[in-house]
Every structure is written in C-alpha cells, then in structure tokens.
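Exercise: predict the fold of this chain.
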Amino acid sequence: MVKAFRLAMCCVLLAGIPMTKAKAETPEETIAKLELDVEEAIVKKDIKVLEKAFADDYFNYDFTSVKKHTKAEVIASIMSPDSALTAYKYTPFDIRIFGSTAIVQGTVHETWTYKGKDASFTSTWLDILEKRDGHWVFVANECAKVIE
C-alpha cells in the first residue's frame, strides 16, 4: 500500500515538471506555417483564419485584372461559391526578415475551378508580412501568372 502511494505521488509530482523544454519556433518557421495555414484556410474556406491572417489594411494586386483589391474583396472572392481552390503545390519558398517586416517569395501551382470550369495556373508570388501586436500578418501580396 505504501509503495503504491509513493508511486502515485511520484507520478503526480513528475506530471507538473516539464521533462524537456519545447523548442521555440524561429520567425521563419512561424511565417512558413502561417503561409501553409492560410493555404489550407483558402481550401476549406475558413473565414476565421483568413480574417486573422490578413491585416485590416491588407491589399493584393491581381495579375488578371491589374487591380488593387482590399482584404474584404479578397476574402469575398475566396468565400464565393463560384470559386474553389482544391490544391496548392508549392516549390520551396524564400523568407527574408527585416526587423518587423518579412518578404516571402515563391512559385505555386494552384488547382482552381471557377463556375465549374478549370481555372488552374502556376504563379510566382510575393507576400509582405508585418509583425503586429506580437503576431505576423499579411499586409500585401502580388503574384504573376507563369506563361507556360
């Protein structure tokens, strides 16, 4: 009985002591994860993730219309039942950090449908992020369709 009590107490005491310290993510790892989380949110049409990831003053330049679009316009386009992103296929992307600003560049093949028709394309892209209130957020994006 005493042995069982001591064993139980050791388990209780050990449970409160971290055995190993979790390795903190580097800023580059955090940004890469955010890039992939936003891609997944676009596929799933997860408005909560998108609202949090894009700064209120976010904008993107659309290569198809050569127009500047606001956060609200971009999210409305993603959420539209007319468009559906089904897959992203990234090549490795580069992340450069300058203080509280980061630039991320890469190439991606996006598998889309628009009004039931294939609208897939490959593009090069550049995201600009800023660390605000301790969190990285997208502040601007631009991409260009790769001519194949």
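Check your answer against the key: The longest strand covers residues 101-114.
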